[in-house]
Amino acid sequence: MVKAILFDMDGVLIDSEEYISKAAIEFFHSIGVMATGEDFIPFIGAGENRYIGGVAEKYGVEIEIEEAKIATYKIYERLIKGKEEALPGVVRFITNAHKAHIPMSVATSADPTKMEINLEVMNLDRSWFSSLVHGKDIERKKPFPDIYEKAAGKMNIASSDCIVFEDATNGVEAAKRAGALCGGITTSFSSSELLDKGADFIISGLSDFPDFSTIEEFNTLLTLFMGREKALLARENAYVRYSKYKVGASILSKKSGLLYSGCNVENASYGATICAERGAIMKGISVEGRLDIAMVVVVTDDYPAAPPCAICLQVLSEFTSPDASIYLCDLKGHITHYYFKELLPLPFVFPDI
Predict the structure, then answer these.
(1) Active-site entry in 10, 15, 146, 208
(2) Continuous segment of H or E residues that includes residue 106
């Protein structure tokens, strides 16, 4: 179970990339270097020393990095104040986590000056964060794991017991090297780029989280997002030569806590389809034997997402309790929740084997 939350700041809590990029470009133009926004992309999430210094190296100019940062931050503060605020869903998410008594820390590669500007712009209650770790607190910047290990250590919690929310590939790599769970946010990089670095699931932002009031509810939502990610990946392998209708599914084993995924497979020889849900069940049984399913996640093209077919429901009834959660997801991020018993017609009987 995840015990604490670590936030990167830029691109996770506030959409500041546009402003720091413009500020850095303005700084370079002031010293006669015609830098562009694309020049900074490789250094996103690596701290301002690399963000500014890396571009200076590219253009072969020598700068005094501390003076360059001070000048850039002055421009940044002028550009962002009064024009930006916390990203959608951030305040609601942090409020939910605070009420659920989940420890939270910010771990940003930015210098303290930029961190303080952002906190003021977002108008967040600083007392809700157990610690604020910035780029000057560590020697090695992301993709090294140091910043997340330090933030977790300040809470006396192992980094492996934390979830990190990150929008940058460098940050995702740092989170995974720290042994943390990582939710990738597609503010700055694509889902495929974040997944390639090891993100455990992808969301568009913290606004994707529904409200939660306990740490148990929060962990259930994390499992849902990981299950959806596995179902999405499995869906890409669906063999649907005839219908062209891809489905992915994942199931959560109550015994092991592992997620098993499957996709639908059509068969020409007898005109039947093996549904994604049954594929996931077969995979789980092949590993664990007898299954006790705690959660089912299904991903389809439709909205509202299609529920499991009658055959799948009958098969599921042999391994799933009536109160197990079923989540139906579409490709646009909509999620519908049912309890298993709500999907069953009256004639269904739960075998007692």
Answers:
(1) 10
(2) strand 104-107
Q: Are residues 71 and 93 in the same domain?
A: no
DSSP symbols for 143-183: TSSHHHHHHHHHTT--GGGEEEEE-SHHHHHHHHHTT-EEE
CB 126 within 8 A of CB 60: no
Of 80, 105, 133, the residue that ends a domain is 80
Q: Which listed residue (8, 15, 146, 200) is catalytic? A: 8
DSSP character string of 180-220? -EEEEETTSS-HHHHHHTT-SEEES-GGGSPP--SHHHHHH
247-277 per-position pLDDT tens digit: 999 999 999 999 999 999 998 776 678 999 9
Active-site residue flag, 8? yes
Residue 301 is a catalytic residue: no
Residues 222 and 256: their CA atoms lie apart, in Å, by: 16
Number of domains, the chain: 3
pLDDT value for 349: 56
d(CA 89, CA 221): 15
Q: Determine the Cα–Cα distance for residues 122 and 119; give it in Å rounded to an integer.
A: 5
Percent of the chain with pLDDT over 90: 71
